[in-house]
Design goal:
Radius of gyration: 21 Å
Order of helices and strands: EEEEEHEEHEEEEEEEEEEEEEEEEE
Number of helices: 2
Distance between the termini: 23 Å
Shape: globular
Largest sheet: 12 strands, mixed
Helix content: under 10%
Number of strands: 24
Strand order of the largest sheet: 1-19-22-17-23-15-13-11-9-3-7-6
Length: 287
């Protein structure tokens, strides 16, 4: 039996965030950094961009090199703090065994697997704050790994290589991509558009909705999960067998918890597409 429209409604949670100007930092300085970087060799080469505060925009094209524009905004208590920020917060590029690594602040964090140093929060809150927005034009077939912590969206467009994104406070947009996507954020929505058949991919957030669109010819197995929101698709679907719940023993009783997950097949089935949020809707649409 197939279903064109199905919706799981659960109690909704609305999260509202407000942004206010920070009067602690009356001094503001803006600067733009431009660099042209060689494209890493090798079919599996990866461009990794490690940011702390700010967004990242990546656009694939016919470039033979990686073209970088970093727009920095330094907010400080005094002129002296501003000058110190310019000295301390170092934009760095490194060649690695897997490709090229670009760091917003090499002194605090350089690499998406590296935690920020223990002093990063005190330094921002007491003397200055540095926000960096990266704009990169890259060869369309390069794989990218992008991460940030605070503020700004992360976007990727017109690429054919794999896309891995890790964010904390911000949304993620991918459009016209063809490689496998693994997108994760905590506070933010996820939007994804594939022009063709997608490889196995995952889309996960905690506080935000997920909207993904695929061609009408899609064949895939989809796993969708939300706790406080709805699940919707306009594809024809057939239900897949549900994974048995794992019982939890309480005294002489076993308690089975519903995992609020729906597993369905689109078309003849194929790569697994996983969508998961805690507070928000999941929408998988045709285009």
């Amino acid at each position: 039996m197939s279903n064109r429209l199905w919706l799981t409604a659960v109690s909704g949670v609305v999260l509202i965030a407000t942004a206010m100007a920070d009067s602690r930092f009356p001094i503001e300085h803006r600067e733009t950094i431009r660099r042209s970087l060689p494209t890493p060799a090798g079919a599996d080469a990866v461009l990794e961009v490690s940011n702390i505060s700010g967004g990242i925009d990546v656009t694939g094209g016919d470039e033979k090199t990686i073209e970088l524009v970093a727009e920095r905004t330094i907010r400080a208590r005094t002129d002296r703090d501003r000058d110190e920020a310019r000295r301390e917060v170092r934009l760095d590029t490194r060649e690695t065994s897997s490709g090229v690594l670009l760091c917003e602040d090499a002194g605090r964090r350089c690499g998406c697997d590296e935690r920020p140093s223990s002093s990063w929060r005190d330094r921002d809150e007491s003397r200055y704050r540095v926000d960096t927005h990266f704009t990169l034009r890259v060869p369309r077939n390069i794989a990218v790994r992008l991460c940030s912590i605070n503020g700004g969206r992360i976007t990727v467009m017109h690429t054919t290589g794999g896309v891995e994104v890790e964010h904390v406070n911000g949304g993620i947009d991918v459009d016209d991509i063809r490689g496998a996507a693994h997108l994760t954020t905590v506070n933010g929505a996820i939007h994804a558009t594939y022009p063709g058949a997608p490889p196995a991919s995952s889309f996960r957030t905690v506080n935000g909705s997920i909207v993904a669109s695929f061609p009408k010819s899609l064949s895939a197995d989809m796993r969708l999960r939300t706790m406080n929101g709805g699940l919707f698709t306009d594809f024809e679907t057939t239900a897949l067998p549900r994974t048995a719940a794992t019982p939890e023993r309480r005294g002489n009783r076993f308690v089975y918890r519903s995992n609020r997950t729906v597993s369905v097949r689109v078309g003849g089935g194929g790569p697994e597409l996983s969508f998961e949020t805690l507070n928000g809707d999941v929408r998988v649409l045709q285009h």
